[in-house]
Amino acid sequence: MRKGRLENRELEAVMARTRRRAASSILSSVASSVVSSAASTPWSSRAPSRASSPTRKGVFPFWALPAEIRLRIYEMVMLSGETIDLHPVNHRLLYPRLGLFLVSRKMYEEAYPVFYRQQTFRLYPYHGRFFHTDRPLLARLPSHYRNLITTLELRLGPGWGAPPKGQNTDPSLGLRDCTSLRTLRIFIEIDPSDTIFAGFRGRNATEETYKHFCVALLLGIMAQAPSLEIVEIDAYPGVKKDAPMVIALKRRVEEHGKKLIWGPLRGWEKEEDEPGLIGLEKALASMGISDVPATASRLVEAMA
Questions:
Q1: Which end of the chain is flanked by fewer CB atoms within 10 Å, N or C?
Q2: Which parts of the chain fold into alpha helices (H)?
């Protein structure tokens, strides 16, 4: 019995060795055929090798670049021509551009001043989802970010019948932290002091109510941000250069010794009635119609 068992074990061992040799022979032949066929094709020299490279690919020496080039790269990645504001799609449009902040502490320290110094930030939210918020974007930013902001935008007109409570210059807004603020861009969408708004101004509101509200905002900004140097005023075509709100804001800017410039949209930096960048006025001017009747001009205002 014992002899029979030994013979069986020897037989199994021999069969196992035979199977291993056969498998090895098959694999060798297949590998040889693949190599030979690849060598015979004209594309063999272009085919990438699947074998692991003996040397590790080098990392781009970003920190070896001059500081000026690194800053330029930050600008190209992060900056856009859009005003930064509270918006529902910031997570898709804005946050991906700020991914540089998360690369390393060193890159964060270099990148975030570029973003906050060169972007324009809207003082009060414009989108309906955040229009009535008590905490505008500026109030949500840490103080060390507010310290770097150089340009703010103040948009006047939306909510003129009942301005949101969040549109104020209380200390909680953080204007006193804006020690680098140099430019305030004021954009006037509408001026409710016009007679066409009679009967629509709300309860106990006069033609000067919203004008006084806007002037108070401007005074609050200038008082809390003494570093402010330039105030830019622009408007839609329905707002004229001699509109009561424009005159009132202009007077306050000049009284506080700030430099006043006119924005490009209306073209007020040119002649008094020269057309701006948009609107029916430009279309009429392009057709050579310079003397527009008063009724037509009034119609343009009403439609705007």
A1: N
A2: 2-40, 67-78, 90-93, 105-118, 137-140, 143-146, 209-224, 244-255, 280-286, 294-303
Per-domain residue ranges of the chain: 64-117, 119-273
| 51 pLDDT higher than 80 | no
Cα–Cα separations (whole angstroms), residue 216 to 73, 113, 170, 248: 41, 31, 12, 11
DSSP state of 182: -
For residue range 79-123, list pLDDT tens digits in order.
988 999 999 999 998 999 999 999 999 999 999 999 999 999 999
Answer whether residue 38 shows pLDDT above 60: no
pLDDT tens for residues 226-240? 999 999 999 999 899
Percentage of the residues of the chain whose pLDDT score is greater than 90: 58
d(CA 104, CA 112): 12
Token pair in block for residue 208: 């000067």
Q: Tell me how crowded residue 222 is: count the other CB atoms within 10 A of its CB.
A: 20
Strand (E) or helix (H) holding 231: strand 230-235
Max CA pair span of the chain = 126
CB atoms within 10 A of CB 203: 6
Contact yes or no for 249/255 (Cβ under 8 A): no
Tokens of residue 269, six digits: 């930096």
Helix (H, G, I), strand (E, B) or coil at 180: coil
Amino acid (1-letter code) at residue 63: W
Residue with tokens 């410039």: 261
Q: Which residue has the tokens 């040119």?
A: 270
pTM across the whole model:
0.70
